[in-house]
Each structure stands twice: as C-alpha cells, then as structure tokens.
Amino acid sequence: MTAGQYIISKLISLDWLILSVIVILIFLGILAINSATVETTTESFQNNFQRQIIWSIIGIFLLFSVSMLNFRWIYAVAYLLLLGGVLFLLLTYVPAISGSSRRWIWLGGITVQPSEFMKIFLIIGLARLLTDNIKNLKKAKGLILPFFITAFVTLVVLRQPDLGTAMVFPAILFPMLYWAGVPTMTLFVIIAPLISLISAFNLISFVLWIGALLLLLWFSRKSLRFIVIMFVINVSVGLVTPLTWNNLKPYQQQRILTYVNRQLDPRGSGYQVLQSKVAIGSGGIYGKGLGDGTQTQLKFLPEQHTDFIISLIGEELGFIGVSVILVLFMLLLFRMINIASNTKNLFESLILLGGAAMLLFQVFINIGMTTGIVPVTGLPLPFISYGGSSLIALMLLMGMVQIGNFET
Amino acid sequence: MYRVQTPLSDSRKNVAYLTIVIAIGILLWSFYDLQVKSYESYLARSERNRVRQVTVEPPRGLIYDRNGILLVENRPSYAVSVIPWEANRSPRVYELLSGYLGYDKEYLLSRVKKNSIGQFQPAKVKRSINLITLSILEEHSIELPGVVYGLFPERFYPTKAGMSHMLGYIREISDADLERFKTRGYKKGDLIGSIGLERSYEEILRGEKGYEYIQVDALGRRISKIETAESKSPIPGNDLHLTIDLGMQLEAENIMRDKRGAIIFLDPSNGEIISFVSAPFYSLATFAGAITPEVWNALQNDESDPLFNRATMSKYPPGSTFKLIAAAAAIDNGIIDRNWTVNCPGYYKLGRRIFKCNKFSGHGKISVVEAIGQSCNVFFYNLMFEIGLEKWYEQSKIFQFDSKTHIDITEENSGMIPDKSLLDNKYGEGKWQEGHLLNLVLGQGDLLVTPIQMVNLMSIIRNEGKYYNPHFAKKYYSANQEIRSFFDIEYHEKVISADISSETWKILKEGMNYVMQGERGTGRFSNLPELDIYAKTGTAQNPHGDDHAWFVGFVEDDRNPLAFAIIVENGGSGGATAAPIGKKLIKKYYDSFASNFALESHTEE
Question: Model confidence over B69-102: pLDDT tens digits?
C-alpha cells in the first residue's frame, strides 16, 4: 500500500459520527465565546475569540495527523510520553518560565498549561502499564505503580494549586483499573475510607453510609474478619476526621481550604453561582437568543468564556441548546465506550475508556458547578470553553479515538 | 504483549453506559429544574437583575484607658467607590467625579486602578467625604453611572490627648501587607492598622467583614437586599482596654508640648504603662480620614520629626544615669564594697589630660552611695579602671541593654553598648584610649540607649532582678461584652539571668534614695517628702547642641509603685529640667489616688 492509499483508506474508515459531534461542539463553543466577547472593548477578550478559532484549526489538523498513526507505535513510546508529560508538568515549578500561579508556563509568546497534556499522557502511560501487568492486577503488586504515578501527578497539580485539574487524575485511574479487570471489591476497599472521610462531616450522611457499607459487606459474603476490619477502618476514619477538623481554629481550617483550593472564596464563588443560576434559569426553554443574554452581556458573570461558558449558553440558547450539548456529549461517550468494548486490543481499549472517563468527569463537574449541584472548582468544559491547551490536548485524544475505530 | 485482550464482560460495559446515562441525566434534570420549573422566578430576577455583592464593613473595636474612658471611637463617614465596568462605558464620569471630589482626573483613575478587584466590584476612590459632596453626588447620580457610596466607619478621638505614637493609625492596606496577610481575607482598599497599637492589635480590633447581595437598578443604585441569598452580618472588632491613665497622659503631654523628648511612666510590678509621650507628636485626627499627600509630606519633612517615636526608637547618650551600671558591676563582682572610697579633688588627671568633676570644688572623700547620690564623676573615673570595659559591658547586658524591651508596639530600637571589638572596629585595635573608658562610665561616647530601656532598668532595680515587658494592652471585650479576655501577666514576666547579690540591690537603691533625700543629692529639690522616691539624674552632652536632661527612677508604694524615665532634648541639666517634671507628674499620680480615696469614702457615707 502506498502512502497515498494508506491515507485514503484511513480517511474512509474515520468515525464520522464522532468527528461531527466534535466539530459541532467546537463550533458552538466558538459562537459562545464570540457572544461573550462581542460587546467587550477590551482587546484581550476580542483576541480570545480569534485565538480560539486558530486553536480549533490547529486542533483539527492534529486530530487527522494522529489518526494516521498506529497503536503499535503509541504503545512503543507510551512510557516516554508519560515521562515527557511529567517533566513538562514540572516545568511549572521553574520560576523563570512560570507565572505567579504555577499552572501555566511561557513558551515563546504563548502560555501553555502542561496539566492539560498530562491528562492525555497519563491515560497513555496507565494504559500500557495496565496492559503489561494484566496478570498481576488481582494482587497489590500490579496496583502499586499506577497508584504511585497517579498520586504523584495529582499532588504536583494540587500544589500549583489547581484542585479542579488535580481531581481529574484519580477520576481517570479508577475507571481504567475497573476496565482492566481489577476486582470491584478491591476498588471498593480503596475508595470506601475516602467516602467515610467526606460523609463524616455530617452525622446523618455518615450513619447512612456506614449502614450501606455494612449491607454491602454482608452480601459480599466475605469473611467475618474482613468485614470487621473494613468496619473498624471506616468508622475510625469517620470519627477522627471531624474531631481533628473541629479542633482546628477557624483560621487554620480556612488556611487548609485556601491551600487546597485558592478559588475557594465562599463569597466570590457564591456570587458566581448565584449569577450563573440566574443566567441559566432566565434562559428558559428557548433562550434569549445568541448575543441577547442580559446577564451575560452585562458581564455579571465572571469567567463566562472559560469555566462558566455553559451558563451563557443556558441563557442565550435555553434548555434546548443545553440539551443538544448534553446529548452530543452522550453520543460521543457512548461511541467511545462502544469502540473500547469491541476492540481486541487491550491497550487501545484502555485509552478509549480513560479518555471517556476524563471527558465525563470534566463535563459533569464543570456543568454541575454552574447549576450549583457541585462546588466550584476550576475545570474547563471540553471542546467548548476557551483555552488552547485544553483543546489541543483533547484533539490529540480524539485523534487516538479515530485510530481505535480504524483498528477495530 | 499489547494485543492481549481479556474478554470484556457485559457487566462492565453496562456499568459504563449506565454511569454516562446517570451523569448526563442528573445534569439535564438540574437544567430542567432551573430553566423550566423555576423559569418565571429567575426571569423576573434577571429582568431587574443586577445582583451585586456588597461587603459590610465591621465597626472596628473601640479603645479605652485603664479607667474605662473612651480614647478611640468610630464615626460614620461616607466613602465613594467606582464600579469600573459601568463607569468605563461613559467616560465623562471620571471627569465629573474628579471635579466633585476635588481630585485630578489622573489621580482618580490611578485610585480606581489601585483599588480595583474586578470589573464589577466597587473600587474605593475616596473616603470621609462630607455631606455636601455626598448630596452633590446624589443630585448628579444620573450622570454618574457606576459611582456608589457607602457608610464607612472612621476613627474619631474624643479626648484632647495626642497619644499618636502609642495608638498609631489605620491606613489603606499596602501591597506588601496584602501579600503577607493574603489568607486573612484582606482586599484592596481595606483599612489596616499601620503603626502603634492599631497595628499590633489589628487581629483583635478589626472584626470580621460581612456581606450581602443587593439588587441595583440600571444606574447602579441600590434597590433592595436579596433576602433569599445567603448573607452574613459583620462581627464588630473587640474593644481594647489599655493600661494608660488618661489624666496622667494629658498632663505629661501638656508638659512636653513645646519640648522634644520622651516621658514614660509604668507600674514596675506588672509592666503596665501609665503614660507614654514622645514629643513632639502629631494629631491623630489628621489620619482619621484620607490623608492628603500635602499633609503627609509636611509631616515627613517637619524638622522636629513628629512622626518619629522618641520614647522607643530614639537613641540617646544616657549620661550619668548609666553610672548605676558601673556601680552594680563593681559591687556585684566584689571589686569594691560600700566602704570603698575615693578622694575627689574636683578633677581627674589622666596623663596630661584633665577630666573635670561635676562639682568644681570637689566632693572630698566619697563612698559609692554618696557618689551615686551626688553623681561624682571622679569616683566613677577611678571605679571604671577597677572594673574594666569587659565587666562593665557584661553588666549592661545583664541589665538588658543589648536587646529591645518587646513593648507591644512594633516601633522599637535597641540601644548601642560598645564592647572591645566595637571600639577596635571603630577606632582600630589599640587606637582607642583610656579616655574613651572615662567617657563611657559617664554615659557618653559611643554609648546610646532608648528611653524605654531606661525605664526598664528602673523596673529591674526596683524588683531586684525581675521585670515585665512594658505593655499598653490590659484586656479586650467582644462587642457584645460576652467574652472578656485578659492579657496574661505571666507572659510578660522576665527574670534577668545573673544572680545579683542583695547587697548590690541595696547599695543601688540607697544611692538612688540619696539622690532625692541626701542633703547634697542631685534631685533633692524635686523630692516629695511624703513619698519614697528613688532616682538618678543625668545630663548628657550631645555634640549637636545643648545637653539632654534625664530623670529616671521609681517610687516605692505598697499598692501603686511607679517607674519612670524622662528625657528632655537640649533641656540642660537633669536635676534642673527633668527632675521637676518628674516631681510634678509623680505628685499628680499619687494625688489622684488620694482624691479617689476621698471620693470613695465620701460616697460610702
């Protein structure tokens, strides 16, 4: 097969459903960014709109380029990519090229957010790691390295500080482990104390959780020793957490909260969510029309072109517009799971599943915070929010999804 | 290898599909809830909608004297702010507003830029505007979109006292402080204690900001508070109660009104400062509102340096008051005893140089107690050669002259006590002469102390080796008076390390008592026979002009002991200038107890 024939056969076999979904989402995003910036006199906002178009074009080109590759090649360089991603991420700690908050680095006139690329490289790295260790995944041995690597990048990003992005890494790891065949009970044992810790801040939720835990354990038909150990561990986590927390002085609690999430300004985010809900709610079923959102156009909503872009869409395009976007995301995710299920290639299957987990998590957290059902943490909405790093990284992933389709 | 594929069970696939359906379903439902079910109410809100979050400033804590007299309170005043997003749309706003406020347009713009925390948040441009300006702004509000004003408590000083160096003032937070205290909730344009007690007790005084959400109309005017939105009432700052006695403070300030120098009175049994004057001082009322650059420059360029805290930061030669250190060093090291004498002919010959005594005709044969009491220079010249520089230096360290007293305001310096290496450095090894030693023993030369260090020395001698960090703060109450907190006295207690003999303390006190009560004591004309006063006068030569006059000491009293340090710059002789000031203030202090006692017994009848 000549190179030309190869390219043509590849193009023919592209998944045009996925491609169309992506293009529509990006197009809607550009419309929204334009609407958010059209009335603005500030030059940088106008530039945002133009820049996003340039990023989109570069992104689509990258998608096609990556789709020409072969998973065998990606498998070969997977660890190299992982290492490269980590080194790139660590560059944010080099004062000379990073800003005051260490999320971005300066690369010849443009700012890049390495943590966005880290997500993709982590997916690739974990996919190979799990593929190579597929026989060990039922034992602790096979789990140590994936956990260690994920924990490391999570902490590095948490320290930047960027809680939103940091949470994405565990959200990728657990579904991938599940997909690779790690027993559900093992994952449950790992996650349970975390749920105990969070639920312990409220007595009722804690009691409910412990009850549910006991029921689950009972029906799991595990040994009594196992059940007792699980129970003791979870109850003690639940008891120790609020005690420790309540013994802290308010300013210490505040300091920890601020440390974990610098955006956690109860007044600032409360204001944002209130404004966001008014914008979305007042959009109604049909919306006020593109460019006619009063909330949006009066610029009451901060960050409306990045993290809160769905509020603008909700106001201007209404429930219909939002539903279209949600359905598009659902189609995309279904299709990715479908390809991941049908491929005979575990490495590729895991990449697709990891990518789907990442997309779902970001969609849920980002949109959930604009309607107030999830606390505010900074995370972009895939394909739609303004931001070059996020879009380019996603397009690399989507390029790989296309190889997956070809090789199924 | 990588092609290995374990067969995927259907259950995992189904879990994946189900997760997606549930997550997207929850999101859809939350939009349905907002956009379909609650559409009407959100639409209504967005019609009028201009939700704005406003900060509600807490009143800053009040400050009282030891008798509960109000020293610092708050008065309502108005502050004007600009919401950049709205004002930027009609550029004439800045022109008009700068006219009404009496600012340059450039200055106004720079204020907006400096205090801006976002396009939609009000940036404070001027505080303490008067009612006339306010009504002008109100009248022209239609031409001034984005200009808002709100109540802003301002410091007010109801007494006639100055107290500027002690109380300090509040100012808009600097960028450096903003960075330093970023976790404590400060925003640009906030006020923060800048110096003095306002700064050291900032955390106690500031209170906690509240906030609420309001709706504003198209002109940015407040319509109503949004009751459904979460709001938080401000928590007022705590009221701070000081150890200062306003009566004594006023008297001391009055005396220093046309002088330069410092007066500190404190209770040596606990370190509570009773009056504290650094003269000249400035009026805190100047700093209550927004201070103009002209006023600030005038204060900074004032030759008499009223912004400088002389009581804790100014370094003076201590003069003869420092003879106490030499005496202590000699006695405690067993170099002399109380019977050791020197014959003073009125001068001391060192090689070919003549060093004069303060008494031309000479003191004759004189012991250490008399030498302190009469401040005989010749006695101490002789003594210094017996002690040597090293022991003299060690003794000054024991008496804490190498460190700050850690008074509860941050503006404090330590003095300078020369040792061999310092003199070697300054004059070259072996280049400094014995004459330097004779200068040092008289409290001259390279020796410098602060007034607060001197009053600390008095506490140490009075308490025979113990002192308390001098402090102004006694206790604080939360605004609703529910929580009363005392500052721990134990915290202030310090015991000096060396084990000084009781004989040393006895001789020092006898000498200081002789100053007041001896027939030739240098302070005898300022003695108050009914009181038990111990003191030391000092006349410090100063190369830049007339001598500085010192009077330091303490009053022994079962219930109300007192320690004091007074320095009058260029005041001449300590006995003639500073001691009478001490007498007047000591008399006033103890008279006030007498009259209180009379008052109490009167009311009991």
Answer: 999 998 888 888 888 877 877 778 888 888 888 8
Name residues 333-392 of chain A within 8 A of B (Cβ): 333-334, 337, 341, 343-347, 349, 353, 356, 360, 363-364, 367-368, 371-373
The pair of structure tokens assigned to A216 is 């689950």
Instruction: Check if the beta carbon of residue A97 is closer than 8 Å to that of residue A91.
Output: yes
Q: Give B392-451 as a DSSP string.
A: HHHHHHHTTTTS----SSS-----B---HHHHHHHH-TTTS-HHHHHHHHTT-TT-BB-H
Enumerate the β-bridge partners of residue B172.
B191
Tokens found for residue B88:
């930027």
Distance CA B9, CA A341 (A): 9
| Sign of CA pseudo-dihedral A20, A22, A27, A29 | positive
Q: Which tens digit of pLDDT belongs to each residue from A13-45?
A: 788 899 999 999 999 999 888 887 655 445 555
Parallel, antiparallel, or unpaired for β B272-279 and B261-267? antiparallel
CB–CB of A288/A294 below 8 Å? yes
**β-bridge pairing B239-242 and B63-64:** parallel
Interchain proximity A346–B43, CB inside 8 Å: no
Residues of A in contact with B51 (CB under 8 A): 271, 274-275, 278, 300
Please compute Rg for chain A using Cα positions.
22
DSSP H or E segment with residue B330: helix B323-332
φ and ψ at B353, to 5 degrees? -95, 145
Residues of B in contact with A285 (CB under 8 A): 35-36, 39
- pTM: predicted TM-score of the whole model, two decimal places: 0.61
Q: What is the pLDDT of residues A127-153, one digit of tens each?
A: 999 999 888 887 778 888 999 999 999
List % helix, strand, coil for chain B (3-state, nearest 5): 40, 25, 35
At residue B278, does pLDDT exceed 90?
yes
Region of B77 please: left (phi>0), alpha (psi -120 to 50) or beta: beta
Which residues 6+ apart lie within 8 Å of A260 measured at CB? A158, A161, A163
Rounded CA gap, A117 and B172, in Å?
A: 42
Give the helix/strand (H/E) hosting A26. helix A16-37
8-state DSSP, B116 = -
Interface of A with B in 200-239 (CB under 8 A): none
Residues 6+ apart with CB under 8 A from B160: B250
| Amino acid making up residue A18 | I
Rg (CA), chain B: 33
What does the block give as tokens for A362?
Answer: 């970001």
Question: What are the distances in angstroms from CA B591 to CA B407, B528, B585, B597?
Answer: 28, 12, 10, 10
Query: How far apart are the C-alpha atoms of B578 and B537, rounded to whole Å?
Result: 8
Asked if the peptide bond before residue A161 counts as cis, ω within 30 degrees of 0, the response is yes
Nearest to B191 by CA among B204, B180, B206: B206
Question: What span, in angstroms and rounded, lies between the C-alpha atoms of B439 and B436?
Answer: 5
Helix residue ranges, H only, A97-202: 114-132, 141-158, 163-180, 184-199
Contact residues for B98 (Cβ-Cβ < 8 A; gap 6+): B104, B105, B107, B108
Residues 274-333 of A with CB under 8 A from B: 274-275, 277-285, 294-295, 298-300, 302, 314, 318-319, 322-323, 326-327, 329-330, 333
The 10 Å Cβ neighbour count of residue B268 is 25
Q: What is the ipTM of this complex?
A: 0.90
The alpha carbon dihedral of B58, B64, B69, B74 has a sign of negative
Q: How far is A132 from chain B (nearest CA, A)?
A: 7
Tokens found for residue A303: 């960050």
